[in-house]
């Protein structure tokens, strides 16, 4: 994006009716590493490609539990993401304390978007620098949501955000119609394949650089262990060798 | 004219006995209000983590609120630390939670019990404003005095002239204690819910008491 004369703050419109600060915030997500979300009739899965600042460093976690029925991952400014995670956890816990039941995931995502909207209409605040993918379970089944700095949220069958997400999106567009009745393991394979399709050849894919989490009607939110992820990755690379 | 009294004792007794890596927790299921019985099937014990329980006597509404609050604090701890709090950590947490209401206390008399990080079964006894101590066995509630007399006699060998040490089943002891208390305490009776907690697992059972 090129610089524009109307982009100094969030409260200035451009003549074309755009708020550039918000659009620049959306660019921040494209700098973040990949997040993938998808669902079937019974499960919703999040998968992320984690980054490490250097070879000496640990991979940074981007996938978090919000409640036993909701999970979150984000692309962009990780500090903003962690604060959002803290907020969502607090809101979900307060709801559970007051009402004795789990909060509806769409309501929770809506609360986050309402908070994000405030930051788009104050001269003293900046928009969030993250896009979040949220998976959640309610009485109708699993759901996948995306939130963004423009304070919108959308529901998806399958979605990918972050760097080089177009390859993952293309893979998901080709395959999402078959997702509805897949088993848990088949769905996980699709999620990992989507992550693989976006990863550059020099990126090492292993149980620590890839995170996967699942929630379902009979499954409270849980992470896949790094052993389980490595098993799926090696299963995929064996299959690809056979195809070649 | 009498002023509104926010406190009300709903009666009942809770007992806990620790032995080795095992702890047995019992709570009767009666709620009373004066001479009236409000319920014969009320559970006074809440499981906080996979190895810790809180058993509370006193005012039911304060006990319910306290248990709910602790469950929320445990959930927050699990989010922040990635694992469950230890019994030791929870013992301090309950203390500061109770003391935070020093000037309008929770009318609750608590026993916090479970298996700690070191694999030992432990019981912590509290007063209403958070003072606590680690115990080998404890009782709270309307049958506290009756229970503690029996527990001291059986676990420590007080008020007996023979040399004695306790070497039988703590679940049997808890049942005997409740039977004795139900005979003489009008606020204790109906049923006892018993949890037998050890590193091998948790065994829950129900035991009938006199209903008069």
From TrEMBL, chain A:
Swiss-Prot/TrEMBL keywords: Cytoplasm, Nucleus, Proteasome
PROSITE patterns noted in UniProt: PROTEASOME_ALPHA_2
Protein's GO biological process: ubiquitin-dependent protein catabolic process
Residue ranges occupied by any Proteasome alpha-type subunits domain in the UniProt entry: 6-28
KW Cytoplasm (keyword) present: yes
Primary localization class, coarse: cytoplasm
Name of the featured protein: Proteasome alpha-type subunits domain-containing protein
Native organism: Stentor coeruleus
From TrEMBL, chain B:
Location, primary (coarse class): nucleus
Subcellular location: Nucleus
Database matches in InterPro entries: Ntn_hydrolases_N, Proteasome_sua/b, Proteasome_suB-type
Record keyword Cytoplasm present: yes
A GO cellular component entry from the record: cytoplasm
UniProt keyword list: Cytoplasm, Proteasome
GO biological process: proteolysis involved in protein catabolic process
Superkingdom assignment: Eukaryota
Protein name (Swiss-Prot/TrEMBL): Proteasome subunit beta
Organism: Stentor coeruleus
